Amino acid sequence: MRIHLQNIGYKDSEYERPNQEWVCGWTRDGNPCKHGPDGDGHCTAHAQAICDPKKEGERFKCTRAGAFGGPCEDGPSPDGSCACPTPEHLVCQPTRNIRARRGRAVVMLAVLSFGFLLLMLGGPWVQSFVNPGQLSSVHLAIQGSKGVENCGSCHANGDAGPSEWFKAAFSSVEMAHEIGSAACLDCHFIDPGLGREQSMLVHGADPSVMDQLTNAALDASVSNTQTHRVLEISGLIQGPVSVADDGLACSSCHAEHRGADHDLLFMSDNECQACHQNPFKSFNQGHPQFSQGPQASAGIVFDHARHEGRFTSEALECGSCHIADKTGREMDVLPFKRSCQGCHEQGSKDHHGDKIKKNAIAVLQLPEMEFDEDAYWPTDYAIGESLPPLMALMLLGDPQAVSLLESIYDGDGADGDLYEWLILTDDEDEPELRLDLALALKRLVSDLSDSSKRGAQVRRERLSRAVNIDADDQRLTQFSNALDAASFVMQRFQQRYLPQLADDLDGAEVSADDDEFFESEWITSAGMAGWRVDSDEGLVSYRPVAHADDLLASLMMLMQIDRPNGSAQAVVMGRINEAFENDFRTCTKCHSEQNGEIAWTSSDRTKRLSGFAKFNHSPHLTMLASQSECSSCHVLETSSHGVEMAGLESVRGFLPHRSESCTSCHAPGLANNSCLNCHQYHEERPE
Amino acid sequence: MRTFSSRRTKAVVSSLIVAGFFSVFIYSFELMQKNAVNLSGWILLALALVLTLFNARKKLTYPPLIKSSIWLQFHVYIGWLALLIFFFHTQWQIPNGPLESVLYIIFMLLALSGILGVFVTRILPKQLASRGSEVIYERIPMFVRQLREQAEQLVLESVGYNNSTILSLFYQQSLESYLSGPSGLTAKIIRRDQEYLQLQSELKALHRYLTEEECDIADQLSAIVETKDDLDFHYVRQGVLKYWLFVHIPLTYSMLLFALVHLVLVQAFSIGLS
Q: Chain A residue with minimal CA distance to B261?
């Protein structure tokens, strides 16, 4: 049996007024006064009881308001004083109702929060307070220590105070991402490459390369177009991907302030797929087959299939020539001495160096000339019948000789043959041309025979003018150094055939009849290996002595320099190319030529056609039971079809990889199969 | 007329569709290397302001801007959506910066108090309706006082019958403190009525020592105890229904203050980075 407490109904129940802020202090005791406090929170208990009696005629009447119960039953005292001096309720301390107390809690917490923010933003610890999180470990050095953060290192307003931040937040400054990314580019991509601004382009790649790749992707027939549904939906929402002309800001992908352990380089597969023209579900579902085999034909040209079947009775082990580099990522090729020389011994029948040694290069020979007047010239020993191309090259470095050479090469049928030149210039009216040529040749002999440092410098400057490149260029330095090694030979040449050369060039009266020939034997040393003087012919020649000959190599590199068609340099270089074609071919049989540069070592190879892929051999090598298992991924191309390299005979390499050889391990739940495992966003440009 | 259940089903389905749309929309921004965090931040701010407007709407009696009950429904479902967007905004990670951490904690407390509010406003009214009569929270102390006065009157009556002090002693020792105000509130939340059951048991046990008239009085006292127990039950539940807002609403404005500072800082520090 429960007791009924109240009737619910607008006529049956007192009306609660939750909008009234104050309630009677006796409410908690269960005995509130009927009318409660006034609007300002003052107790009305006294007013409820006491009135100011009004005299009507001879009697006083109670004037208590109807709201407080109306006139009291007994009325005022005869003297007109209120007869109810004691209120029905004791005076209370009114309290706020729940709603008002909640409102005060709101205000108090808001004030507390505001004060806390003022304190934190106004104190010296403001930068620590607003720091949204620790930088990644690679950037910790930039962050500075706690309390002295270097926000301004990356943020334009980083070192300003809260007032400046407030202004900046509501200013109309355009958020040009170049500004922020510029701070990144102060340290990253400092290699000129494509330049700072272009580093922010998609993949940091040359737009033309990206266009090429995009068009190739659009043209490609995709067999498996299954993609993540979320990509399709986001494509519908966002439309085709469009990147601003000025590219992507660094912060688009590399989010900072995520803690020291945050991986700045992480990108999800879907993020990669969102931009790509032919998205697919995963590496295991829809990834296109690899179109290329290992880049065996790049750098050092090596026909693996030919070596395996033709020259050895047993298959060559991969480790005979290949070894992982220091990082383990790439497989380097061992140097010639360790990988090739074991079979290709110096002097052996098949060694290409042997072929080179048969072809001595004529470097210096004085031409046979007769003069109408007295001239200092070893007529009896100057018997050259043609102008050696290398000598012509060095004459190009003599400004006074250039016009002479041009006259030699400029006529019909002129091909650098000295007899042709004699026919052209054996004009009685112009004997000075022969004198000028003789003088130019004597200057050349003087320069070549100077073994001092100054002589080396003179030779370098002469060669610089001849090939029209900077004197400090590495290729020129290598060629010049090779010539320096011959200065002693040249000195002997000069002492033998032009002993009074110095006096002659100084303008003294000298005659070849007074020459006393230097009769000693030719002296050679290790540094002069390959240099030879033929006393009968009056000829200095050079014959490459071994693999990796400096003079021949540097000469080949100088040949790669572009020159204007028809120029004296172009003509002379053309002649050199013709003269040494066989020697050069011997080199380029293995050392490929790409984009005007010769790959002398395996590390010079262009590793990939695009620099977006990467592969780490190291973890894969540990899984091989033997070196022969390399063939589980690297399958030799044994067909007769090869790859044309540098116009040489076709070279067979490897079949393109099959993605199945990767997906057997790189699959969900097994090894990592994300895009970034094999690809990198920023193109790795060959240096 | 549609039932509450069907309305709730439709609202939940609609909310899930909207949440799915926002999720994909934000995720697609992220995929396209656009500033998804910025986008989710603005969406979150807009949702927070809409949620805050509910409190303003409750204060307004005019103009009639849709019924408060409908606002409440929107408030609940938008609140869930805001929580989802918040996780997108924080990228499902706990921030480690001081300001962001404080903001994160405030938001989470706000969300948790909101979730608590949703559950208590769904559960407690049913419990209240299942027990006792409908009472206004503010009047409960007054009703308790009335019960106490009734009890005192009955005890005085019992003494007048035959000078028996059994009931008066029982009142002094047990009932008086029980009827002096709300009691056993913590126990009432989890619906443990040990004190009530003990009193009822004791009253029943006294019957063997009482006269017939006193037994009638004891029965009336038993009814008073039962009613008081109901009042305590209502008092604690109605209190929860009112006082959870003491956490939820103040945190709202505190969160908005911190969010404003966060927004200013993000804008100021984003110049040159976004």
A: A117
DSSP secondary structure letters along A37-101:
--TTS---HHHHH----EEETTEEE----GGGTSS-SS---TTS--S--S-SS-----EE-HHHH
CA A341 from centroid of its chain's CA atoms: 36
Instruction: Kindly report the nearest CA distance between residue B88 and chain A, in angstroms.
Output: 15
| A109 touching B (Cβ < 8 Å) | yes
Cβ pair B223:A2 closer than 8 A:
yes
Residues 184-243 of chain B whose Cβ lies under 8 A from any Cβ of chain A: 219, 222-224, 226-227, 230-231, 242-243
Report the predicted TM-score, pTM, of the whole model to 2 decimal places. Answer: 0.66
Judged by a CB distance cut-off of 8 A, whether residue A20 touches chain B is no
Contact B223 A230 (CB under 8 A): no
Same-domain check for residues B127 and B248: yes
B110 with B194, same domain: the answer is no
What distance in Å separates residue A476's CA from the closest CA in chain B?
46
* Cβ contact, residue pair A5, B31, below 8 Å: no
Q: Give yes or no: residues B152 and B268 share one domain.
A: no
A505: helix, strand or coil: helix
C-alpha distances (whole Å) from A579 to each of A479, A575, A583, A587, B110 are: 18, 6, 9, 15, 87
The verdict on B121 and B207 lying in the same domain is no
The radius of gyration of chain A from alpha carbons, rounded to an integer in Å, stands at: 48
Contacts of B138 in chain A (CB under 8 A): 16, 23, 27, 97-98
**Residue A129: closest C-alpha in chain B:** B98
| Coil, strand or helix at A473 | coil
Taking alpha carbons only, the member of A55, A51, A75 closest to residue A63 is A51
Residue ranges of alpha helices (H) inside A334-467 are 336-339, 352-358, 389-395, 399-409, 418-425, 432-448, 453-467
Based on the domain organization, do B33 and B148 belong to the same domain? no
Tens-digit pLDDT profile for residues A638-672: 665 555 444 444 455 677 778 888 888 899 888 88
Q: What is the ipTM of this complex?
A: 0.89
**How many domains would you assign to chain B?**
2
Q: Are A308 and A636 in contact (CB under 8 A)?
A: yes
Q: Please write the tens of the pLDDT for every residue from B43-98.
A: 999 999 999 988 888 777 777 777 888 888 889 999 999 999 999 999 888 888 89
CA-to-CA separations, B119 to B52, B110, B127, in angstroms, rounded: 19, 14, 12
Judging contacts by C-beta atoms under 8 Å, the chain A residues touching residue B274 are: 175, 177, 180, 249, 251
Q: Do A155 and B273 touch (CB under 8 A)?
A: yes
- The residues facing A534 across adjacent strands are A539
Q: Can you give the residue range of the structural domain that contains B16?
A: 4-131+244-273
